[in-house]
Amino acid sequence: MKKMELHSHAKIIKGNAWFIVVFTLLVGIAAMVFALVRPVQYKAVVSFDLDFAGQAATADYQYGGYYELKAAELYVQDLMSWFKTPAFVEQIYLAAGFEPAIDNIAQFTNRFQAKQYSALNFAVQFTDASRDNAEKLSAAIVTMVEDGAGAADQGDGEKVLFTVQALDPVVAESKFPIWLVTSVGVLAGLILSLILVYLREYFRK
Question: What is the top-level taxon of the source organism (predicted)?
Fold first, then answer.
């Protein structure tokens, strides 16, 4: 039975070999053309480090360092949540000196991606079609976070818990390798051509 099934599959593929080859090549060529004509994008990464603001040691609890790190971890998560707030994202654009080219709320909340790497470090990254805009937005992010964190730390006369320091933003050209895009296109074309062949065979029977 298995031998017959393998023979049937081989017969179907052999009978449609020309379609599979042509379709796969066309999709691969389309992917290569897309990679060639795709506009250059610029990826920006802004990293932030937290530091303890000279808190005095206390004998009230044994694991003070652990609780300080947990507090820093939660504070970083709070800072990262700002980038999911449309009002904050809009303020970044205004601080950069231009209006946000965003059409809906989802684009606001997904414009910047923040990721926590440790209890005391996180980074914000995004892409833009203009290097100049990417650099302006990076500078605005630095200003907004450092100023906002400083204001947020001052609570009713309480001491500052953490200081937030931005590292130099990095802006670099982001472009998919042509060979990688073409390879993915060829693979996708091959899979899709096989699906179409079997669908045609199914409806023909």
Answer: Bacteria
Give the contacts of 146 (CB within 8 A, at least 6 positions apart). Answer: 164, 165, 166
Q: Which domain holds residue 15?
A: 2-38+177-204
Which residue blocks in the chain are alpha helix, DSSP H?
2-15, 17-37, 64-81, 86-96, 105-110, 131-153, 178-204
**AA letter at 145:** V
Are 139 and 186 contained in the same domain?
no
pLDDT-derived band of residue 54, with 50, 70 and 90 as boundaries?
A: low
Same domain for 45 and 33? no
Count the domains in the chain. 2
pLDDT tens profile 64-122: 567 788 888 999 999 999 999 998 999 999 999 988 877 778 778 889 999 999 989 99
Task: Please tell me whether residues 55 and 69 are part of one structural domain.
Answer: yes
Q: H or E element: which one contains 54?
A: none
Q: How far is CA 79 from CA 84, 118, 126, 148, in A?
A: 10, 13, 16, 9
